[in-house]
Amino acid sequence: MVKHLITGGCSFSAGGEYTGWTGALSSHMKTINPKVTCNHTGYQSQGQEMIQKKVMLALTEAFAHGYKPEDILVVVMWSGTCRKAWYIDNHYIINEIINYLPKFVGGMSKQFLDMKDKVVGTPKYFSTALSDGFEYNPDGGWFFTVNGSECQIEFVQQHYLLDKELNGTGKVHTSLENIIMLQNFCDLHKVTMIQQFFMDSVYEDIENKKDHQIINYLYNQLNINNMIKMGMFEYLHKFLNSDKDPQILSHSERKKLSGDRGIFDKDGFHPGAAGHQMWVDNIIVPFLKDKNII
């Protein structure tokens, strides 16, 4: 019986123990074991590097608190292949990044966080085109980006120019390396782990590059038996009654088609409350039952 649930992901996995698919799953687990504890490690905009690191930290802490491997279930939702994180504590670079951040157009969250998404010490604040008062740690921490569009600093831009395409071979390698690292860590410690993807493109990136030398040796280690390959985004699109490809449908069109049903959120991109519940009821729970995990 599962006694401790650890979840991880990006903004598609927002909500922790109370909302989102993570909340819906923890609620279901509590119908089986009312005493189950939950630790959600996800945070918006983060990719495989941070997902892997934070789930692994949560696992080592769970062991330290006396949980046995058979007590723990790890469920992660892998995010965009091209997402990147750097640990930075050079004040010159931190200040340079902060000076450039207000110039981009797009959403932003706290930056230079620790492994538990906290701003350590005395936070400072920066403004962006869309919001004011976001915290950052002036002494450093994890700086992360979705695709580099929010930061024109040279080292960030150069990172994305190393591949001939946004989700190029180098990015897929780093993404898959982190997936394999967490998978093998769980296997080593005999912890049950379930993997899923926020969009179809993440697994497709792996499949498309699987024959390349720096991808193939990692690809051959993938445990597809513990994996839900379909993306949550594309799955929920099926309930919108639209013939358009999910990638072509605009956010405004998706928002209109979803209406007040809550399949997608008000931004027309992220899953809504109903969408999260549908994903858990129709996909995750049946998968867990099929694998005799619950």
What does this protein look like?
- The protein has 294 residues and is α/β, with parallel strands linked by helices.
- α1 packs across α10 (273-290), α2 (48-64) packs parallel to α5 and α5 runs parallel beside α7.
- It has a five-stranded parallel sheet, with helices on both faces.
- It has two domains: 4-82 and 167-290, Rossmann fold, CATH 3.40.50; 84-153, no CATH class.
- 39% of the residues are buried.
- The chain has ten helices and nine strands.
- The model has no long low-confidence stretch (mean pLDDT 91).
- The chain has helices spanning 20-32, 48-64, 91-100, 154-161, 169-188, 200-208, 213-219, 232-237, 251-258, 273-290, and strands at residues 4-8, 37-40, 72-78, 84-88, 124-126, 134-136, 141-145, 192-197, 227-231.
- It starts with a strand and ends with a helix.
